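Protein modeling request. Please complete all fields; requests missing the sequence field cannot be processed.
Requester role: graduate student
Desired output: 3D structure, token encoding
Chains: 1
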Amino acid sequence: MKKYKAIIFDLDGTLINSLPYHFLAFKDLLLERGIRISDSHLRVLMGLSTEDILKELKKKYKYPYKNLDLREERRFHYFKFLGQRDISFPGIKKLISSLRLKYKVAIATGSSPIVFSHSTKSDFQILFDEVITISDVKKGKPDPEQLFLCAKKLKVKPFDCLMIGDSIYDAMAAKRAKMDFIGVTTGYSSQKDMEKFPSIALIKNIIEVRKYV
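Delivered output (213 residues):
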């Protein structure tokens, strides 16, 4: 196995089980306006930033509402469904604590800083050397900008980074950044879709990453 200097993780669906709450938030947001979103269409979009998801939904459903206003309101729907739950996947804090002894570790997330802070506990947040949110870049995944910024902040070359994520958009970004990729099938991207992109492995549980690093 190649020796890496840093590991960059996606957040939603990879480290924390937040996707069901994001999913409900989008549906509830537009249902209040009389718009019923197709579940299958929304699942395909999960993994993009909220702004990009809303752009795609507006194209399909032709609603007159401003996406900037909807983006702000969607957060409150998400917070409502999330409540005070600890949604980090079982064993994830122990895993990161172990990995950070050998590697620099970072998060590249399509979530905003406020959503990140509400979705994770302080003992989770302090485990990472860097957290790059959608607010830190002009373009979210599948654009590689977040991954390049992570590498820059960690002071390592992209080639020396391993990226781990749960969506085809993570896989696309890793490919474009020329980073090795491990896919975890805990999100809404199917294994069949994930197999279309280069990866070291596709795993069913994030804890399985121990076999590869």
